[in-house]
Write a structure and sequence with these properties.
Distance between the termini: 40 Å
Structural class: mainly beta
Radius of gyration: 13 Å
Shape: globular
Strand content: over 45%
Largest sheet: 7 strands, mixed
Length: about 120
Amino acid sequence: QVQLVESGGGLVQAGGSLRLSCAASRIRFSIYAMGWYRQAPGKQRELVAAISSGHDTNYADSVKGRFTISRDNVKNTVYLQVNSLKPEDTAVYYCNAKFLTTVYWGQGTQVTVSS
């Protein structure tokens, strides 16, 4: 069974940093586009950052210049470096793997930013 397991979330003060990780198993990781989404209470899930199988990246405007997505196809892991965190970044962050019509989700990791 395919698994995406996120880690690295936590409680951090505004201005702080975290590194989120998502380890994938039982998929041919290198061919999947990987993404990080987040969902704050009462809000819809939104795309934060994505990286293609060719390592092309794109970011939500709200995180450009603060967040960096990367992938390691040897470790089957995608990372999200989150810097200069703001209280509005508080959310559950989900990892996503997509190839054609096949999509997998992780269980999420909580990021809480205190002011």
